[in-house]
Amino acid sequence: MKMRFAFTPLRLLVLAAWGIFAIILTTQSDRVPLVHLMTRTIGSTEVGDALGHAGLFGVLTFALYMVMARKLKREWALPLAMGIALILGLVTEVAQIGVTNRVASVSDLLANALGVFVVGFAMTYLSILRSRQPL
């Protein structure tokens, strides 16, 4: 028997928590303890910063997809989740313009997009594999 992660309220809770986490990390000043901790550990190098952004927005895309796939056709849920995550990445980068100790950068925006597209590719690939499996 296959177990599926189908409990919708739990999916919504994970999405809300990760969304708030992503927004806080990408729009708040370095004076916020959580942001300070993350920028000093993961974001202390350019590569770490890029991986942090990619991971953050990749997980956000996955969480969005998991919620939307319950209510929409799967072929619509993934592009919509990717679009929302890309727009949120752009908005959070623009929002950094007015934040102390933060700088909006194209490299962060590209790292956000990388995470979104890696998850999009992975989910598409898994869907193709799943459709090829004999029933």
List keywords for this structure.
mainly alpha, 5 helices, elongated
Describe the structure.
With 135 residues, this protein is mainly alpha-helical. The chain has five helices and no strands. The longest helix has 27 residues, at 106-132. It is elongated.
How do the helices and strands follow one another from N- to C-terminus?
HHHHH
Based on Cα principal axes, name the global outline: elongated
SS content category: mainly alpha
Q: Roughly how many Å is the radius of gyration?
A: 16 Å
Uncertain runs are none
Number of strands: 0
Distance between the termini: 13 Å
Itemize the secondary structure elements and their pairings:
Layout: H1 8-27, H2 33-41, H3 46-71, H4 74-95, H5 106-132
Entry summary:
The chain has 135 residues and is mainly alpha-helical. It has 5 helices and no strands.
